[in-house]
Amino acid sequence: MLPRSKIFIFISPCFFFFIGTEFYQGSLLSSLITTLPPELPRDGNELLELNLQIITTGTISGSRGLMSSTIDMVDEALNNPNLDKLHRFLYELKVRTIYIMTLQSYLVWVQPANSPTFDSSRGRRKLQDTFAVLDETPSDENFKSGLSVKRKLWVKSLDDLGLIYVTPLMMERTWLFPIFSQGIG
Q: Are strands 117-120 and 153-157 parallel, antiparallel or unpaired?
């Protein structure tokens, strides 16, 4: 009986360390798996069906210096009786759009990069992982830059509708993960 107990004593710690090593390597390998963006909609109607968050930062239209938001332009189109086909789409788009008026949109969008909330015309909102941007303006590049400070972005443009997929906040694992870990956000 004595030789078997020595074998058991030797094999038990070996299996313990082999299993622990396998789980540790699995956690390292899981951090190397790439995250792919979801299936993003192909057109505006599909966007409304997916019930995504729609954000607009406003645009400059008309003569120089006049500010006009995209929502105001949608209102003008809704008042036009010749647009029966687009009426439902534009109405739903207007109701669901969150308006953010800013000239320094880079600074505004660094805030959601750090935490999942932002200030808008409807109060403090939580930023969803996938959202749409209604107008493509130069200020949109600023908030994409602000968001990408601490998050990875996938951007897809529909005709006049930019769609952005943002990965949620996550930890970046290092080879010394149990001792050191680099956190973002």
A: unpaired
